[in-house]
Amino acid sequence: xxxxxxxxxxxxxxxxxxxxxxPKVTAKGSGRVADKIIELAKMYGIPVKDDxxxxxxxxxxxxxxxxxxxxxxxxxxLLAFVYSLNRKKQPG
Length: 92
Known about the structure:
The protein has 92 residues and is an alpha+beta fold. The protein contains 3 helices and 2 strands, in the order ββααα.
């Protein structure tokens, strides 16, 4: 999520290593649509990370489009953040 341009934006990604060669954009929007994306993510326990620069790049992609190689490192850092949150949630 971001408000860098004055209006909240959100982009949702999906990565299935067994099917996808890179993460794909599954939802994106601004304003109320961004609010709904964030609300649904939180409702389903999907981590939300605020990275305005990454959102600006990802919001220019089409739905179902794979992320471009130039943002692999930024998205890898995002996935590492998500995996670390998931590890903290696991018992023991």
